[in-house]
Design goal:
CATH architecture of the largest domain: Alpha-Beta Barrel
Number of strands: 27
Radius of gyration: 27 Å
Bound molecules: beta-D-glucopyranose
Strand content: 15-25%
Oligomer: single chain
Length: about 750
């Protein structure tokens, strides 16, 4: 029958070859519908259910159990998609089984977690977001798609757009941090980058908005834990990035592991049908997370897997990842009248539509091309972009007495710490097909950068974890004989990411003890942090001369850090997440409510006895080697008509002596609302570049959409009243003005 499939597509009308017009688009859509209708008429119920079934290959293992027999299931024509399989040859072989050994020859869809690059690994998403550079983020997704599609992949399980305010949660590393607006902007950029304008383009792939929804708010920061919040908070803080991806035409959604409002997300009709389909009009398909249908049983929501399958499909789930629940029970459930055949048809149609859009019915092997694979992977161009992207992700947290940048004439540097010559951790978690042996360590980066006039005295000092202090004396000696000390400290890559929550988020092991010993020498100490989450580093902040937050920067990390250390690149990253002073402050985030008793020096106000309310570093914070001065804000009017707009401008001047980039951030506060409103909310930003002495006027145009929010009736609208408007260099250091939104 697969031959029939191809003959169907070969009669596509000539109009396909004409220029892109609405008429052409309509004709294509009609043709696609006709093709899928005809195909579905040929399919048995089992074959349709097969399209709703996704299995992992053994090339990578990303969940608790595997299925040995999945190749046999493919042969039965009862599998629609495979994940964790890549390379042109391997995908071609598996595709061949589907195309040549099954009755209908329907091609498989190949998915994978291409999260921050495929072979060329970019910074962890928390680091990518710190660039606040949406063009660069889009380009990173484009490059990832180029590399991944050349290895037979059609579908990435990215972007992960779970807003999170809890650095104990390991998956904060994979996220864009705490802010719904910033996360939504990143989500848009990533979807555009992966999917491009046309999914038929060989270099583009399906994107996935995950994990729907509110997975980033687990109780106590423990992964997979219960989530509970008001619908107002859900809609205003956690859903905006997901809605943004629907607006960008994202192809797929992935359900979350957690329950929300006491219903597991995978069985939530409220999330998957009411919000996603009815309110937002999403047209792609919904895949579960790894065995999350089965997990509705331990959740205590389903009696057994069959019951879970019924709940999942009827709630709006279209594809079962790895759980075999649809495979085992859907046909029975249809026979018993518990699931309608039309629901199966709807899900199968959505999945077949994506296969059609990718051109898989034209040529099922079109993405599995060994020649293209050789050409596309880790090209010099990709690596060059990766280095630039990585240095843009670095955030300068402290720079006392302009310790940085270091001078080229420095005679000796001590490089100390367990992250200094460590390749594996650099590519972080979810590093897909990344090869860590190709990553550039900081030691190597320094050697690449420095001439023979500078002596590098390297000593590991200690491990990332454990109590071993036997390396301390050597590290102290290295520091003692050097002019400057660079300490590379942090977490292992597996200490963040999935199933990697921590209850204490300081530097693990005895790294801080080593730091305390080294600073006693009185030398300038530059701390280079490598980690997947905000750490509690008050002591390091108090004693270090300079601190660079470098996250896990990917393949080119060492070169990128050297670029910043020596001033070849002036750091411009800004924190996408608040750094707490201690874990007791968590959750701590900038867009909090004022409370009825905002903090004052009096007793009965909202504060701690033992720590300030303020964070160590606020959201949006990041220093530069130059300085920027902000003028007062200029408003086009201090009244904004409800259906009109308002311009807010500031002039930013580079008052230092070197070229630099600055992220100009705009926040608002509505003073009184029908529900209590946050004391600040990011609503716009622009990254600008200024030569020394140069000034630039930055203007933001605001309309009611910037001011709207979901009220207690779940209506998204702006409410007339008084607003504060802030523009500044981070969420705390801002200029302020006010305006009124008129009736
Ligand atoms: C993760 C997902 C991922 C999936 C497939 C799950 O454990 O939660 O984010 O896409 O595995 O690897």
């Amino acid at each position: 029958m697969h031959k029939n499939l191809f003959s169907l597509t070969s009669i596509l009308p000539l109009v396909f070859f004409l220029a892109c017009t609405p008429e052409k688009h309509d004709a294509e859509t009609r043709e696609m519908k006709r093709f899928i209708d005809n195909l579905m008429k040929e399919m048995t119920l089992e074959e349709k259910i097969g399209q709703l079934t996704l299995y992992s290959s053994y090339m990578d293992e990303t969940g608790p159990f595997m299925n040995e027999d999945y190749l046999d299931y493919i042969r039965e024509g009862r599998v629609g998609a495979v994940f964790n399989a890549f390379t042109a040859d391997y995908t071609r072989e598996i595709q061949r089984i589907a195309v040549e050994e099954t009755r209908l020859g329907i091609p498989l869809l190949f998915g994978y977690d291409v999260i921050h690059g495929h072979r060329t690994i970019f910074p962890m998403p928390i680091g990518e977001t710190a660039t606040w550079d949406m063009e660069a983020i889009k380009k990173s997704a484009q490059i990832a798609a180029r590399e991944a599609t050349a290895e037979g992949l059609h579908w990435t399980f990215s972007p992960m757009i779970d807003v999170t305010r809890d650095p104990r949660w390991g998956r904060i590393a994979e996220s864009s941090g705490e802010d719904p607006f910033l996360t939504a902007e990143v989500a848009r950029a990533k979807v555009r980058g992966y999917q491009g304008d046309d999914l038929k383009d060989l270099h583009t792939m399906l994107a996935t908005a995950k994990h729907f929804a509110a997975y980033g708010a687990p109780q106590a920061g423990r992964d997979y834990h219960t989530v509970d919040m008001s619908e107002i908070t859900l809609r205003n803080k956690f859903l905006p990035p997901f809605k943004a991806t629907v607006e960008e035409g994202v192809a797929t959604f992935m359900t979350a592991f957690n329950d929300l409002f006491a219903v597991p997300a995978t069985g939530s009709e409220f999330l998957l049908t009411q919000i996603l389909r009815d309110e937002w009009g999403f047209e792609g398909f919904v895949v579960t997370d790894y065995t999350s249908i089965n997990e509705m049983v331990p959740h205590g929501f389903a009696r057994d897997e069959k019951h879970a399958g019924k709940l999942a499909i009827n709630a709006g789930t279209d594809m079962d990842m790895q759980g075999s629940v649809f495979y085992n029970y859907l046909a029975e459930l249809v026979a018993e009248g518990k699931v309608s055949e039309s629901r199966i048809d709807e899900a199968a149609r959505r999945i077949l539509t994506m296969k059609y859009k990718l051109g898989l019915f034209d040529d099922p092997y079109r993405y599995s091309d060994p020649e293209r694979e050789k050409e596309m992977i880790m090209t010099a161009e990709n690596l060059e972009f990766a280095r630039d992207f990585a240095r843009k992700s670095i955030v300068l947290l402290k720079n006392e007495n302009n310790t940085l940048p270091l001078s080229d004439n420095i005679r000796s540097i001590a490089l100390i710490g367990p992250m200094a010559d460590n390749q594996r951790d650099l590519i972080g978690s979810w590093s897909a097909a990344g090869d860590y042996t190709k990553s550039v360590t900081l030691l190597q980066g320094l050697k690449n950068r420095l001439g023979s006039q500078t002596q590098v005295n390297y000593a590991k000092g200690t491990d990332v974890i454990g109590e071993d202090k036997s390396g301390f004396p050597q590290a102290i000696r290295a520091a003692a004989i050097s002019d400057v000390v660079i300490m590379a400290l942090g977490e292992h890559y597996w200490q963040s990411g999935e199933a990697a929550s921590r209850s204490i988020i300081d530097l693990p092991g005895v790294q801080e003890d080593l730091f305390n010993e080294i600073v006693k020498l009185g030398k300038p100490v530059v701390v280079v942090l490598m980690n997947g989450r905000p750490l509690t580093i008050e002591n390091v902040d108090a004693k270090a001369s300079a601190i660079l937050e470098t996250w896990f920067l990917g393949t080119t990390a060492g070169d990128a850090i050297a670029d910043v250390l020596f001033g070849d690149y002036n750091p411009s990253g800004k924190l996408p997440v608040t750094f707490p002073r201690n874990v007791g402050q968590i959750p701590i985030f900038y867009n909090v409510k004022n409370t009825g008793r905002p903090k004052t020096e009096f007793k009965f106000t909202s504060k701690y006895l033992d720590v300030p309310n303020t964070p160590l570093y606020p959201f949006g914070f990041g220093l530069s080697y130059t300085t920027f001065e902000y003028s007062d804000i200029n408003l086009s009017s201090n009244q904004m008509p409800l259906d009109g707009s308002l311009n807010a401008s500031v002039t930013v001047t580079n008052t230092g002596d070197r070229f630099g980039e600055e992220v100009v951030q705009l926040y608002i506060r509505q003073l009184v609302g029908s529900i209590t409103r946050p004391i600040k909310e990011l609503k716009a930003f622009e990254k600008i570049a200024l030569e020394p002495g140069e000034s630039r006027e930055v203007t933001f145009e605001l309309n009611q959409n910037h001011l709207a929010f979901y009220n207690a009736n779940n209506e998204f609208k702006a409410e007339p009243g008084e607003f504060h408007l802030f523009i500044g260099t981070n969420s705390e250091d801002v200029k302020k003005t006010s305006f009124t939104l008129m009736e």
